[in-house]
Sequence to fold (126 residues):
Amino acid sequence: HECKITPKIEFWAHCSNLQAWTENHYDTRIIHSNLGFPLLKELADAGDPIANRVFKDEIAKRFNSKVESVQKFFLEEGYLNYLSNEELQILFKAHFGISEIEKKKYVLVRVYMDDHIPLLEDDPIA
Fold:
């Protein structure tokens, strides 16, 4: 059986979800990632320090998911520019580990990023 709600009730439900999301420091488990991630980006760009921290954490978490299409998207769209060089080193150490083969992958990714993304500027986003 189909449950119908009025547009007004639907609007207030969305408002309630967004309120809970903000009251819980932008906890990404509260709202759908297709909405939460772009909102975090906009809030981080606007200078919200909590959103900036959560946004960086989300970037690291999603990049470390090891889903190649996600990693490629993050590289191509410049999302790693939101991370400082120190945060990038931590991200890549966590991602690649310490084996010799993995160190070579780190170098390849770093070369790719240096060629395609202006990453080595002094603190580009912070």
